[in-house]
């Protein structure tokens, strides 16, 4: 039941206006859906080549940025970042509290930042999740497996290692997620690095696989430019 609630909530997050940032913002422009890439179609996850990354439009993670995190990375042009206030999950009625819980927590991770693609013409988000301190660098893949498992109905997960241009390393996964509520299977990706302040997961979903593929250059940009704060 909780998996279905979570799937429906993520697909219709606008009902929680103010819970996750920018969810009710309309896309800018004339409704056309340009590619997020500055050079063409996205390459495969885990390539590490950076051949098809988006143009940078800013960054998150550092002190004073929209989201202060244990790591920093560049965000694609026109994508809008905003910190997630987990305090909004407290109080309210039981249904709202359950919905908030489903949105704000995934396994041992808590939602910390949401970067909205709608202003750039796509439907989806890069979301950043953080965990508690104490993990070691060698725990990265095991922690990422916990994150994927907690999402619910996932399959065909392919794990690999990555290293950013700034020599930040960790684990990455490409997998399929099936929503019981929407009766749809789509591609998703995530990478995880362990910091002194705890593990950090950067996740790319999307309305469907088509949107996911269109947004891959922004995800590649985040992974390539990942750095310590």
Automatic annotation (TrEMBL):
Ranges of compositional bias, category Low complexity: 32-42
Organism annotation: Streptomyces ossamyceticus
**Name of the protein:** Lipoprotein
Coiled-coil annotation: which residues? none
Region annotation (Disordered) maps to 28-55
Which branch of life, at top level?
A: Bacteria
Xref: InterPro entries: Lipoprotein_23
| Assigned keywords, A-Z | Lipoprotein, Signal
Does the entry feature the keyword Signal, yes or no? Answer: yes
Q: Which Pfam families match?
A: Lipoprotein_23
| PROSITE patterns to which the protein is assigned, alphabetical | PROKAR_LIPOPROTEIN
Please list which residues make up the signal peptide. Answer: 1-29
């Amino acid at each position: 039941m909780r998996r279905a609630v979570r799937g429906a909530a993520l697909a219709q997050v606008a009902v929680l206006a103010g819970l996750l940032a920018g969810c009710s913002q309309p896309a800018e422009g004339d409704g056309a859906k340009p590619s997020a890439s500055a050079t063409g179609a996205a390459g495969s996850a885990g390539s590490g080549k950076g051949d098809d990354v988006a143009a940078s439009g800013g960054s998150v993670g550092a002190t004073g940025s929209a989201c202060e995190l244990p790591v920093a990375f560049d965000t694609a042009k026109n994508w809008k970042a905003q910190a997630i206030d987990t305090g909004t999950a407290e109080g309210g009625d039981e249904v709202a509290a359950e919905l908030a819980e489903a949105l704000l927590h995934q396994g041992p991770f808590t939602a910390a930042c949401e970067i909205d693609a709608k202003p750039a013409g796509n439907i989806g988000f890069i979301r950043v999740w953080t965990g508690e301190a104490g993990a070691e660098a060698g725990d990265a893949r095991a922690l990422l497996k916990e994150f994927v498992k907690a999402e619910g109905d996932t399959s065909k997960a392919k794990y690999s290692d990555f290293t950013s241009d700034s020599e930040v390393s960790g684990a990455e996964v490409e997998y399929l997620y099936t929503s019981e509520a929407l009766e749809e299977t789509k591609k998703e990706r995530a990478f995880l690095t362990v910091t002194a302040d705890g593990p950090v997961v950067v996740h790319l979903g999307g309305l469907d696989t088509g949107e996911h593929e269109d947004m891959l250059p922004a995800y590649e940009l985040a992974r390539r430019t990942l750095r310590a704060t």
